[in-house]
Specification:
Spore Coat Polysaccharide Biosynthesis Protein SpsA, Chain A; 2 domains; seven-stranded mixed beta sheet
Length: 364
């Protein structure tokens, strides 16, 4: 009977068809006789990355493909890849060849022989190098590192690293607490673990991308902000709900601007102006939530139209609930401000719960 893999390398991909073959060749060269497998978790890349990985897998049993449909996100892809393997040691690295596979044997040796949970490929430990960074990316990385300081050990020099290896025990201890938001799974791991993780950093030179384009854009930075927010308040309230409320607050300004423009500016009746302002505000809220709150589940095409209809319907019912609760509380001689606030809260919770379930089909 053939023994299973001792090490699994999890590689999240999106449009990396030109890189995956080169990466597999480098893994073979680096790992020698180690029993290993590489799990490419592909978010349905339009460039055929999944097909290329499957082509390689037919010739190489160490190569596996997990293809995700209508889902995006580097951290969540890493988690699914980790859970798909039986290996006792799990590494995470990018497909763009900026991470050095020759560091993997040293990482594995440390985990096997020392009391460690995680070994991190560090760009900022003594001997590491990030000379391939553009100036703006270096500045973003430095800012992200500073913002993470309240969530990771003070002596961790590179909490933003996407290149690390961990034990299965460390994963299983943290996995039910992971946010899965954004693109920095290592930070998520340290912030979510119920116990302090024992770690070591190994320096390496961060290379240049082999082919394709970088995925680090403003959306990725937004996702990082959502991860930080989730680690700060997620134990009390879902982070999506917080963003949903923020979007709703912007909708109030849209509503009042349209109402003023139609009623005061164009002389339309208040009833007609209020109706149009409500519809426009709901549409603006739906669009912003689709882009921001549920970016990983964003609706397109006819799904967008159906989603808009369900969102407007849900929020219309929420408005009725808002008014009904507030009016009843006020009739019970409650303070008008508290009654109004309670109505807003009930309407907001209703809108979030119903649209999460029927508009975006999210789980959290």
């Amino acid at each position: 009977m053939t023994a299973g893999p001792q090490l699994a390398i999890i590689v999240p991909t999106f449009n990396e068809a030109a890189n995956v073959g080169v990466l597999v060749d480098r893994l073979h060269a680096a790992l020698g006789d180690t029993r290993w497998e590489v799990v490419f978790v592909d978010d349905d890349s339009p460039d055929g990355t999944a097909a290329e990985v499957r082509r390689m897998a037919r010739q190489n049993p160490a190569v596996r493909c997990v293809q995700r449909i209508r889902r995006r996100g580097l951290a969540s892809a890493c988690i699914e890849g980790m859970l798909s393997t039986s290996a006792p040691y799990i590494a995470v690295m990018d497909a763009d060849l900026q991470h050095d596979p020759s560091l993997l044997p040293a990482m594995l040796s440390l985990l096997e022989n020392e009391n460690l949970d995680v070994v991190i490929g560090s760009r900022y430990a003594e001997g590491g190098n990030v000379s391939s960074f553009a100036t703006d990316r270096a500045a973003k990385s430095a800012l992200a590192t500073r913002l993470s300081r309240g969530l990771v050990p003070a002596d961790l020099k590179d909490p933003m690293s996407g290149f690390f290896m961990m034990t299965r025990d460390a994963l299983e201890g943290a996995v039910r607490h992971l946010s899965g938001t954004g693109f920095k799974i290592l930070l998520d791991l340290f912030a979510s673990s119920p116990r302090p993780l024992m770690f070591r950093e190994l320096p390496y030179n961060f290379g240049k991308r082999y082919a394709g384009e970088s995925k680090l854009d403003n959306r990725a930075l937004w996702d990082y902000g959502m991860l930080l927010l989730d680690k700060l308040v997620g134990r009390f309230v879902p982070v999506r709900f917080v963003v949903f409320i923020m979007v709703g607050g912007l909708g109030i300004f849209v509503h009042m601007a349209i109402l003023a423009a139609l009623h005061e500016g164009l002389g339309q009746s208040f009833l007609a102006s209020q109706a149009w302002a409500t519809l426009v505000a709901m549409t603006a809220n739906f669009m912003l939530n689709n882009i921001v709150t549920y970016r990983d589940l964003a609706l397109k095409g006819w799904a967008w139209v159906r989603g808009w209809f369900s969102f407007v319907l849900a929020c219309s019912v929420g408005a009725v609930a808002n008014v009904g609760v507030a009016t009843w509380l006020f009739s019970q001689e409650s303070d008008w401000f508290l009654a109004g606030l309670a109505g807003i809260l009930v309407g907001a919770v209703w809108n979030y719960a119903v649209t999460r379930t029927y508009t975006w089909h999210a789980n959290g």
